[in-house]
TrEMBL record:
Highest taxon, organism lineage: Bacteria
InterPro entries reported in the protein's UniProt record: YceD
Lineage per the UniProt record: Bacteria, Bacillati, Bacillota, Clostridia, Lachnospirales
Name this protein carries in UniProt: DUF177 domain-containing protein
Length: 173
């Protein structure tokens, strides 16, 4: 959702409260797509600080379905998002880039709520998700989820990368 900031920037000390829906259908990262389970509207407060500076404060909570890193079952992961950003409209886009200021959620005088929320999820996105601390994962031979039962595959599968070392021990006997 795009929010026009011109009206807020036109009056010093103006405060505007907005409930903005999240229009993202899914969260896409590194070629993977994660579905939303929960998308609460973003409660935004826009405050004109004067001298073409704007304070953006927001809160929301969302949850995504992310596969467990061991067994690949979907896990609902919650994100409580609370943000506070100050944007200086006197600074050009070129200068922001030089200062490594990431304000890709501002385009001209428009605030893109979806990009803002995407960036906040990206910052908090977990490196590893587990359905349970004791998750047994999947069998590397047949692919069965070992949390749901055991399989008849040989459990002493050898790592092929160690074949050179095994050959050394075989030849030394």
């Amino acid at each position: 959702m795009l929010i026009n900031l011109s009206e807020t920037l036109s009056v010093n000390n103006k405060v505007k409260h907005i409930e903005a829906p999240i229009e993202l259908e899914s969260f896409k990262l590194d070629g993977h797509e994660y579905k939303f389970v929960l998308k609460n509207p973003v409660s935004l407060t826009l405050t004109n600080l004067g001298e073409r500076r704007l304070l953006i404060e927001g809160k929301t909570s969302v949850s995504l379905l992310i596969p467990c890193s061991r067994c690949l079952e979907d896990v609902e992961v919650f994100f409580d998002i609370s943000l506070e950003k100050e944007v200086d409209f006197k600074v050009s886009a070129e200068d922001r880039t030089k200062e490594l200021d990431e304000t890709n959620y501002i385009s001209g005088y428009n605030l893109d709520v979806d990009v803002l929320i995407y960036d906040e999820i990206l910052i908090d996105f977990p490196l590893k998700v587990l359905c349970d601390e004791d998750c047994k994962g999947i069998c590397n031979v047949c692919g069965m989820n070992l949390n749901k039962g055991s399989c008849d595959c040989e459990s002493t599968a050898l790592d092929p990368r160690m074949s050179v070392i095994r050959d050394i021990f075989k030849n030394s006997r």
